[in-house]
Amino acid sequence: MNITYQTGTIPSAQQIIELYDSAGLKRPTHDAERIAKMYQNSNLVVTAWDGEKLVGVSRALTDYCYSCYLSDLAVTKDYQKEGVGKKLVQLTKDAIGDETMLLLLSAPAAMEYYPKIGMETVHNGFIIHRVK
């Protein structure tokens, strides 16, 4: 497996939809326009590729000096447990630097994954859920 990583490359909405569906990430994959808008409005995207195939993505919003919200981390099912997700998180952290905090909200199924790659659980958050 020869995975390459890119920062700043925005995959097509269809590539992202296929990745999310394969990874089991619950996103509005029935709405390609919304998926495209999610990426157009993100300012840090790191991708993992096996040749021309998108196999992983980290999508974040950051000010590059204090905080970063890692809103999506997804790896295609066939590439999970190969270190791709861990590498995407590391490259995201490298891009934002040491003075920037990295925060994410985990899907219930991934709650045990993040501590394994060095992330700490936090209990001081609040949320207003989206309507759709």
Order of helices and strands: EHHEEEHEH
Would you tell me the structural class of the helices and strands?
Answer: alpha+beta
- Ends: how far apart? 38 Å
- The global form is globular
Q: Order of strands in the sheet with the most strands?
A: 1-2-3-4-5
The major pleated sheet works out as: 5 strands, mixed
**Any idea of the CATH topology?**
Aminopeptidase
Determine the CATH superfamily.
Answer: Gcn5-related N-acetyltransferase (GNAT)
Report on this model:
The chain has one domain (3-116): Aminopeptidase (3-Layer(aba) Sandwich). Strand 3 and strand 4 (67-75) form a beta hairpin. It has four helices and five strands, in the order βααβββαβα. The chain is globular and about 40 Å long. It starts with a strand and ends in a 16-residue tail after the last helix. The chain has helices at 13-23, 32-40, 84-96, 113-116, and strands at 3-7, 44-50, 53-62, 67-75, 101-103. The mean pLDDT is 93. The longest helix is centred in the last third of the chain and has 13 residues, at 84-96. Helix 1 packs across helix 2. The chain has 132 residues and is of the alpha+beta class. It has a five-stranded mixed beta sheet.
Compact overview of the structure:
By secondary structure, this protein is α+β, with helices and mostly antiparallel strands. 28% of the residues lie in helices and 26% in strands.
Give the helices and strands, then pairings.
Layout: E1 3-7, H1 13-23, H2 32-40, E2 44-50, E3 53-62, E4 67-75, H3 84-96, E5 101-103, H4 113-116
Parallel strand pairs: 4-5
Antiparallel strand pairs: 1-2, 2-3, 3-4
